[in-house]
Amino acid sequence: MRPYLVLLVALSLQAAVAEWSYQTSWYEKARQDKVARGTVWPQPRSIDTTSVRYYLDPRNFRLEADSSSAAVSDPECKAVVDHALSRYGELLFWIPEEDRAGVDGDETLDKLVLTITRGCTRYPSLESDESYSILVNSDGATLLAQTAWGALRGLETFSQLIYGENGKHVINGTSISDSPRFPHRGIMIDTARHYLPLPFILRHLDAMAYNKMNVLHWHIVDDQAFPFQSTTFPDLSGKGAYTRKHVYTPDDVSQVLEFARLRGIRVIPEFDTPGHMMSWGQGHPEILTRCYPTSFQPDIYYLGPANPARETTYTFMRKLFEEIRELFADEYFHVGGDEVRFQCWNSNEEVQEFMVQQGFPNSTVGFADLQGYYINRILEILHQVPERTRGIVWQEIFDNFEISGDLTGLNLDTIIHVWEWNDTRYQGEPFREEMAKVTAAGYRTILSSCYYLNYISYGRDWPQYYECDPHDFQGTEAQKQLVIGGEACLWAEWVDSTNFIPRMWPRASAVAERLWSPQDVADSEAASPRMEEQRCRMVRRGIPAQPQGPSYCEYEWNILSQLPNYRPVITSSGPRVTEGLFHNLFLGVLVLAVVKCLA
Amino acid sequence: MRPYLVLLVALSLQAAVAEWSYQTSWYEKARQDKVARGTVWPQPRSIDTTSVRYYLDPRNFRLEADSSSAAVSDPECKAVVDHALSRYGELLFWIPEEDRAGVDGDETLDKLVLTITRGCTRYPSLESDESYSILVNSDGATLLAQTAWGALRGLETFSQLIYGENGKHVINGTSISDSPRFPHRGIMIDTARHYLPLPFILRHLDAMAYNKMNVLHWHIVDDQAFPFQSTTFPDLSGKGAYTRKHVYTPDDVSQVLEFARLRGIRVIPEFDTPGHMMSWGQGHPEILTRCYPTSFQPDIYYLGPANPARETTYTFMRKLFEEIRELFADEYFHVGGDEVRFQCWNSNEEVQEFMVQQGFPNSTVGFADLQGYYINRILEILHQVPERTRGIVWQEIFDNFEISGDLTGLNLDTIIHVWEWNDTRYQGEPFREEMAKVTAAGYRTILSSCYYLNYISYGRDWPQYYECDPHDFQGTEAQKQLVIGGEACLWAEWVDSTNFIPRMWPRASAVAERLWSPQDVADSEAASPRMEEQRCRMVRRGIPAQPQGPSYCEYEWNILSQLPNYRPVITSSGPRVTEGLFHNLFLGVLVLAVVKCLA
């Protein structure tokens, strides 16, 4: 027996030694060059870092608002700041208790003091000031912002400056002065091709905040489904949603809005019109154009775009928009306008007669005139709803006015959303020509053409988004000023809650940095180590951002281990409360028993 | 006030009416053609369905093993069957209590009786009989199989036959006779490019069982990392894993094996050699070939393939394989053999001298000879480990013996795994030529070339896998018999736990049906409605299988709502127990208090 015993002891010793003598692997060594710990994404406008390290003790560190500033004295500021301080209190430290090392004897940083110098609005807007500055040195750490929205950006940056080293949370001496390059940094989500359960939208909003994105463009309805539950017209979702469970109630919308507001994110709804409205026709066929002949078409296709010839269409839209405007807070409203099939209008006698009345020729120009007429009526309604609203439209609206030869026909407060890539009218990258034309005509614009995240391909694809600049077109400085930003779009034909977040992130992070950081921060190779850090930071915070090449994160995505037990879980439309209910009842009975006993 | 009240009442009424008058939307109507409820995936060899409906009452329905059969009398059968009956007891019914309708007055089905006619082995193998038959009629429901493995396939089928209708669980009269077309229906996972936390591997095994896949090919280590924790050579993972947390302990491996066994799934490990071994060199550089000159190469690349010239290499591999063979149960072991860089061997004097000794010329033929020599030593070791093991190798091994002009040099019990797609030596689809050559030489083969799921593209891409048939090559009937099956491969350069499951499923389901169902079940259009049903079935069961076009599932993937609370969750290497601990302590104190009070 003795040789076996010796062998056993030897093996145990060897295992123990191996555990203690654990060394950095070659891949880890290689990765240390690939990952830039404690770096900020998106890159700030100006950042200086010293080699002096300050250590943070999670038990003692405090995030504080300067009580003499608007952060406390202005109630609108205070509400946002209080919530943010609580959130970031949790996000600053992530090394699990059991892996933490003490910081006695190290130079420590005990608090961050936040000061807001101006004041706050209830909701963020296109005009919000998001600038902030951070100073970390031996005197302590300060964060200075003009508004709560700037304070949010600064808190995010501060949280990203902290990195882990030998079980300690560390921050280097730092001086940052930062503000965004573009005020409109958006992401479009599509809840019509697939329904997204509410918690996924909320978690996505968190990810947006981690990347300083500030506009959720909610393409909420489309041909396939009408999940928005209108109280004015309940049949829209009652007959147009996939099922009665696949809807967003007014309360759901309010939750999204409040969750977004607290993160400095605007929510802009899109109710696409006059095209992409098939699902509206289930509950309200009267507002759509009937296409002829229908005999050769399947039943479901017989309704086309909105019927521009009927006054009742506009009455309907006005009522709906009044409801929507009351629910959503933003000054802007996306009314679509893309991909309208003129053939259907052309086939309908009522529409034809209307065109004759209006003096529109029966030609492409005439249909462009007709769509121009329609959209102007819609924009007019927006202007008239109780709180004046301005429109955002897809580029076809601009193009149609160009075809009509009447670019002055469209209100200049309208924002043109450029999205087409393969425009047959141009060679090369036509969206650059479109940007030039739109801004030359004096319209503000948002770029999405090169930020379509739904198109996927094998391998590392974020550099293509990263390297596409919204100012990269021929135009004057005044024209460039009219570019208010861009939006990453994730159309949802192939995306639902199963793959929404990993497909979005960190690819949308590339767009985030393009829109926030200075124009010359544009080298994707140089950005890679920060991108790696940002990806793992998101994973650590509960965002399953997909990998960008062989690597690992210190804290891997392991959501399955978070579930009560491993058995495959039926996830129906909402959280199951029964278990918690019984549990609480049981607890309540116990507590009562104790109280009664003691009495 | 009155008009408001009237309006309020009217609105409430309207909402109530809308709720009651909820109608099937046009999209739902369209979808009813697109989804085939209660259909089976993969399609059984023979299935007849009647229009007679039987209703199942979840409170009373029983899954029973026929006690006079091997399902109870054979202890190996019983262990697998008991576990399966418990699992499927949960999977059969999914309509939430609150949505269920009673089945009083309907013709009900009260139980399924399972009979096993032959007996069981502890582990499934290449030779396992997976056939089964099912009969559902007015006499009841029976499932007949020769082995526990067949019983598992039958239970899966039975669970898929049940569909929901108006709140009731329904099954139609059915007669099925089924068995797989190929005995080896595998999926390759790669845990070296990215580490997969254990729960994800387990959940993936569940998904495999739902698709009747029966081989997990575990490409466990590679250049980037060595996560397998060897007790014989702890430095392999101690220095070659990403971190000390990114490892699979022997206990982890045992968990995977047992979880797989209970689902009739074989686990075949791959320890790729002599190439793809860079991570081995961190702990054991002595077994790799040093490449010269190194001056121009980064430090991490100076070690190449295994050193075939040293006897110590073989001693090392023998010890490691003995350990692995004891841990893994399968008769087959994948030893890789792909993508070996001959330049490194060519640069090393020791290897050159060895080649001269062995009489291998200094040419491509000579290096092919050398790799042939090496792999034969490895296969010989496999044959000699306590439980004789057979090898599976990537196709290069076969190709090299062909280059050496000595196809008889490779043991005929070796299985050749065909994977190359773009082979410059052939035009068209070279893997078909390779299949022909390999089988003509008398070797058994597995096809993967057209099942590489890591390559992604925009849109609906499963038909390309579905339509690629392993028998589609020029060869005799005897040659076709040598094709034992195929494997879907998901190389993990761009995949980790954040996107592993949605990228795998339901695309791997296409391969599953190709390998299980008769050859003429090959029309992807015809298969689509069943694919839709299978996708949503997986989602319902906790597998986030991604969508295949605009649609919805009755029960959407909503894992976030399953979490204890919504705050982004730090997921470290294991579940956090602290919360539960405190909770239980609190509960314990309460219970003690009650007990003490009552005493």
TrEMBL record, chains A, B:
Q: Which organism is it from?
A: Branchiostoma floridae
Catalytic activity line of the entry: N-acetyl-beta-D-6-sulfogalactosaminyl-(1->4)-alpha-L-iduronyl-(1->3)-N-acetyl-D-6-sulfogalactosamine + H2O = alpha-L-iduronyl-(1->3)-N-acetyl-D-6-sulfogalactosamine + N-acetyl-D-6-sulfogalactosamine; a ganglioside GM2 (d18:1(4E)) + H2O = a ganglioside GM3 (d18:1(4E)) + N-acetyl-beta-D-galactosamine; beta-D-GalNAc-(1->4)-alpha-L-IdoA-(1->3)-beta-D-GalNAc-4-sulfate-(1->4)-alpha-L-IdoA-(1->3)-D-GalNAc-4-sulfate + H2O = alpha-L-IdoA-(1->3)-beta-D-GalNAc-4-sulfate-(1->4)-alpha-L-IdoA-(1->3)-D-GalNAc-4-sulfate + N-acetyl-D-galactosamine; N-acetyl-beta-D-galactosaminyl-(1->4)-beta-D-3-sulfogalactosyl-(1->4)-beta-D-glucosyl-(1<->1')-ceramide + H2O = a beta-D-3-sulfogalactosyl-(1->4)-beta-D-glucosyl-(1<->1')-ceramide + N-acetyl-beta-D-galactosamine
Signal peptide stretch:
1-18
State the protein's name. Beta-hexosaminidase
Q: Where is the Beta-hexosaminidase eukaryotic type N-terminal domain?
A: 40-161
- Coiled-coil spans are none
Listed GO cellular component terms?
lysosome; membrane
Where does the Glycoside hydrolase family 20 catalytic domain start and stop, copy by copy? 182-518
Matching entries from CDD domains are given as: GH20_HexA_HexB-like (cd06562)
> Per the record's keyword annotation, is Hydrolase included, yes or no?
yes
Keyword Ion transport appears in the UniProt entry: no
Gene name as annotated: LOC118408704
Q: Name one GO biological process term.
A: N-glycan processing
The alphabetical list of record keywords is: Disulfide bond, Glycoprotein, Glycosidase, Hydrolase, Signal
Q: Which residues form the active site?
A: 339
Q: Name one Pfam family in it.
A: Glyco_hydro_20
Q: What is its EC number?
A: 3.2.1.52
Disulphide bonds annotated for this chain are 77-120, 291-344, 536-553
The UniProt family comment states: Belongs to the glycosyl hydrolase 20 family.
Classify the source by domain of life: Eukaryota
What GO terms are given for molecular function? beta-N-acetylhexosaminidase activity
Kindly list the residue ranges recorded as spanning the membrane: none
